[in-house]
Amino acid sequence: MSMEKKNNNILVDVETAYLEHESDPEKARYLFAYTITIKNSGLISARLLSRYWKITGGDGHEQEVQGDGVIGQHPYLTPEQEFTYTSAAMLDTPVGMMQGHYIMLNDDGERFEVDIPAFTLSVPQTLH
Q1: What range does the domain containing 109 cover?
Q2: How far apart are CA 73 and CA 109, in angstroms?
Q3: Residue 78: how many CB atoms within 10 A of its CB?
Q4: Exposed, middle or buried: residue 92 (CB in 10 Å: 0-12, 13-18, 19+)?
Q5: CATH number reported for the structural domain that contains residue 32 in this entry
Q6: What mean pLDDT do residues 29-47 have?
Q7: Which of 11, 19, 37, 44 sits in a 20 to 30 Å window from 126, CA-based?
Q8: Region 101-127 average pLDDT
Q9: Is residue 40 included in any domain, yes or no?
Q10: What is the band of 7 on the pLDDT scale with cuts at 50, 70, 90?
Q11: Distance between CA 127 and CA 24 in Å, rounded?
């Protein structure tokens, strides 16, 4: 039986970028920035309480990160409001993947999980 995740009309959009100048491939250090926009497309305001990430490197190595809020904030989103932030992840391979969820609390006192769909982090390939 499959369970559908109830995102409570919270939309998550992700954009990624490889930070070449802050990476050091010789030392297996690849830094990626990700910019996330969270939009409340529902009718009830909600606050982001915490985050959970599973980061998987190209070698299959997984790390889990969880914490309070995002970038030190607990954004409160009224209907149709958006919140955008940028953070970064360090990988030891040139390709990896991130996925996770936010825990949010709406004005009805209901806690709910918002899925963050898996997205790829990869060093752009250069053609010679």
Answers
A1: 10-121
A2: 19
A3: 10
A4: middle
A5: 2.60.40.1470
A6: 96
A7: 37
A8: 92
A9: yes
A10: confident
A11: 20
pLDDT in tens, 41-92: 999 999 999 999 999 999 999 999 999 999 999 999 999 999 999 999 999 9
Give strand pairing partners of 101: 52, 115
Residue 3 lies in a domain: no
In a domain, 5, yes or no: no
Instruction: Beginning with the edge strand found earlier in the chain, give each strand of the sheet holding 10-18 in spatial order.
Output: 10-18, 30-40, 82-91
Is the pTM here over 0.90, yes or no?
Answer: no
Return d(Cα 10, Cα 123) in angstroms, integer. Answer: 29
> How many Cβ atoms are within 10 Å of 30's Cβ, its own excluded?
25
Rg (C-alpha) for the chain, rounded Å, is 16
Residue 126's pLDDT band (cuts 50, 70, 90): low
* Domains of the chain: total: 1
Which residue is it, tokens 């390709």? Answer: 95
Cα dihedral angle (67, 73, 78, 83), rounded to 10 degrees?
Answer: -90
How far apart are alpha carbons 38 and 92 in whole angstroms? 28
Q: Give the Cβ contact number of residue 75 at 10 Å.
A: 19
